[in-house]
Specification:
The chain is α/β, with parallel strands linked by helices. The protein has 11 helices and 14 strands. The N and C termini lie far apart (50 Å). The model has no long low-confidence stretch (mean pLDDT 95).
């Protein structure tokens, strides 16, 4: 009988939002069992957080390196680890577990520099281990259906790409010295070289690339910091040029007043347009050239890609947690294939990996180069 995959977690202790999201996502399809964690670097908080999650006391660690070593030595040790720490720890934590022979499921961004990200991708490949990256929005059934439609040529030749990720949670004034205690997003030592750029800009970039199937060759970018006393950017705007002649725009903001979590993608082809807004994730709008706007719904669209990511009958909304769970399900499929020495099943082929993370960091570093050059056109390959 197939058993659950033994999962560990680094970060995500009491009060941490994204750690709880990962744990819920991992349980939705019942493919994982959380058995160990280094949920905090503070020993007491690590124990309390682990106890609250019913972990055995001896498997509540306060040091991720000790956890990697101890778990790799156990016959019942973790087979995969979820990394839900601030950005600067992604690379060192992932490296420790990959070196210990343990699969990795990591929050984005992959790392805080392109060089770090490339090293991680190379290490995962050398060790023949899975490195999954949680670009959540690629798990929505309708976005997977949209990608299948693009691949099938239903929108024709791609001409225009418009992608947006807008929030307002950083729009308020802050005191001199940074942000609220415990919020690391304004600290370059923890967040990396980008604020909004690395937090949500890479999400927008991945989404456009995921659905369109195309990578821009050049970009022109400007970073802005609207709120006084903020160290890192809180707004990003980018123009994109594609090899086939298509053009695109990307903007990401965390000071867009009144926006909760708008992640919108519009693709315009020679035959049709696709329009998706993740705040209404059960609606994909398809408009053929010269025709009427058509509403596509999960459970009513017919593609293997959408079916694989749909859990409930038509008319029952699926949302963020289910999209997140889709990545964990695909990761479980990939891990079991690797453990059995089999090729990756087609079902899991759209799981974001370290390669996607490298692409996101290449984009982010190109944005920074363009901005520093006075918003000059910049090659992503530079």
């Amino acid at each position: 009988m197939q058993r659950r995959i033994r999962l560990g977690m680094v970060g995500g202790g009491q009060g941490a939002f994204i750690g709880a999201v990962h744990r819920m996502a991992a349980r939705i399809d019942d493919q994982y069992e959380l058995v160990a964690g280094a949920l905090s670097s503070d020993p007491q908080r690590a124990r309390e957080s682990g106890t609250a999650l019913h972990l055995a006391p001896e498997r509540c660690y306060s040091d991720y390196q000790a956890m990697a070593q101890a778990e790799s030595a156990r016959t019942d040790g973790v087979e995969a680890v979820a990394i839900v720490t601030p950005n600067h720890l992604h690379a060192p934590v992932a490296t420790a577990f990959l070196e210990a022979g343990i699969h990795v499921i990591c929050d984005k961004p992959l790392a805080i520099s392109l060089a770090e990200g490339q090293a991680l991708a190379a290490l995962a490949q050398r060790k023949h281990l899975l490195f999954a990256l949680t670009h959540t929005y690629s798990g929505y059934p309708l976005l997977r259906h949209a990608r299948a439609m693009v691949e099938a040529g239903e929108i024709g030749e791609l001409r225009l790409v418009q992608v947006e990720y807008s929030q307002d949670w950083l729009a308020d004034a802050i005191a001199a010295g940074g942000m609220a205690e415990g919020n690391w997003h304004n600290d370059p030592q923890q967040a990396g070289f980008g604020g909004t750029l690395l937090d949500v800009g890479v999400h927008a970039y991945h989404l456009a690339q995921f659905v369109s199937g195309q990578t821009p060759e050049q970009l022109l970018a400007e970073l802005s910091t609207f709120v006084p006393h903020r160290t890192l950017d809180d707004h990003v705007q980018v123009m994109l040029r594609y090899a086939n002649g298509a053009r695109g725009t990307l903007w990401a903001s965390q000071v867009a007043t009144g926006c909760e979590n708008t992640v919108r993608l519009r693709l315009f082809g020679s035959k049709a347009q696709l329009d998706f807004d993740q705040e209404e994730p059960n609606a994909l709008w398809f408009t053929p050239q010269g025709g009427n706007r058509q509403l596509l719904r999960p459970g009513r669209v017919h593609s293997a890609a959408a079916a694989h990511a749909t859990r409930v009958p038509a008319g029952h909304p699926e949302g963020y947690l289910q999209a997140f769970a889709q990545l964990y399900l695909d990761a479980a499929i990939a891990i079991r294939a690797l453990q059995a020495g089999k090729p990756l099943p087609a079902q899991a082929r759209w799981l974001p990996t370290a390669d996607d993370g490298v692409a996101g960091l290449a984009f982010a570093e190109a944005v920074l180069r363009s901005h520093r050059q006075g918003a000059a056109w910049t090659s992503l390959a530079s």
